[in-house]
Structures are given as C-alpha cells and as structure tokens.
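Readers outside the structure-tokenisation community will struggle with the description of the input data as it stands. What matters is that the chain and its backbone geometry are given together, residue for residue. For illustration, here is how one protein appears when written out as sequence plus structure tokens:

…
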Amino acid sequence: MQWATQTTSSTNQGFMVIGPSAPAARYIAPPDLAERESAAGDALYQTGQFDAAQRRYAAANRLQPNNAQYHWRLGFCAGALGDLDAAGEHLHTAVKLDPELAPARATLTEWYLMKGMVDKALQSSLKSIELAPNNTGILASRALTLEAAGDVDGAWQLVQRIVTLQTVPPSIGVLFGRMAPRHGEQERALALVNGMLVRGGLNPMDQSNLHLTAATLLERIGRYDD
C-alpha cells in the first residue's frame, strides 16, 4: 500500500528523495514489505514464538488490510495464543475476502470445533474439501470434524487414507494415536508418531501433543521401558 504524498522522485528502498523546497514526504513501503513481514511471521510461528509472529502478521495486515492471506495468518496465530474471539474475526474476514481460500476455511473449521459449533464445522470442512480435495491439511481438518460429529468410522477411513501420503500433519498423528486402540493399530500409530518426532521441524505445541500421544500409546501397548 502506498501513502499519498507529493514528491519529486523516489528511491528503490521505499523512501522519498525530496528537494529543499519540496513539501515533507511520507514513507512509502516497498512493494514486497508485507510479504516479507508475513514470511518472518511464518518462521517465528514454526518455532512457537506466537506473540512475535502475531506482530509480524499484524504489520503485513496493516500494509495490505484487504489481503485474505494475512487475515488467515492472524487468525491461526490468535488461535494459538488462545484468543478465539480475535481468531474468529480474522478467519471470517479472510473467507469473506477470498471465499476460495481453502486453508482459511479449514482453519475456520477448527475454530468452529473449538467453539462447539459442530454443524458449522461440518459445512465448512465440506466446502474446504470441494476447493482442495487433495490437500493433506484440509483432509486432516475434515477427519477431525467427522470425529467430533460422532462419525468415527468416517474419520477412521479418512485417517487411513492420510497416513499413506508423503506428508502427514501432526494433528493426524495425534488423531491416529487416539483412534488406534479401537482398531488394534497401536504399534502402527506409535511408529508414525515417533517418526514425526524424530524428523523434527515441529512447533512446540505439536511436539508436546505428539509426545503425549506417544506416551499414551506406549502405556496401552505396555512398553513402559521405551
């Protein structure tokens, strides 16, 4: 976004170069500054620095307030910080600005689940699947929604499909671990969860959830020495 100004010329760094008699100029942000702020926020989010990530996403959003991507990022970051009201506001705005932004719809689905709005979560996840039927994150969101709605068989079938894919979201490792004892799949679930933990690259929240899942599976299996 560019601020209104009167100037004689500009540099490629975003600052105006003005002559002695020219009116005072305002700062013009470089065209890619919002994108750089958002990328910095992504890096901080992945290391669990949610407060710092939120500040970067907010900076990107101030530069481009009608960018659905930045509202989506502010939404999932607010959710990680436990501010569900702010999360819902940003996620609804993201979907309004770009109705076909499937990841935003998937995150909104999870927000509905957190708020206990299961019917709306089902509708939202179905729309996400229609927009991006092969996106593993969106498939994972759908599986979590089906479980919450009581369709454990539908959720299990979808989990079985997701765990065969090259990239499996941590949330599916947790869900697989939770559902595995009912199907006698504890060993397989434990191998998946341990593999995720060994590979690393997890944010602290996912890492903690996976460690708890592994411990629960070990207790179920009876391998207390692992």
Notes: Strands lie at 9-10, 16-17. DSSP finds eleven helices and two strands in the chain.
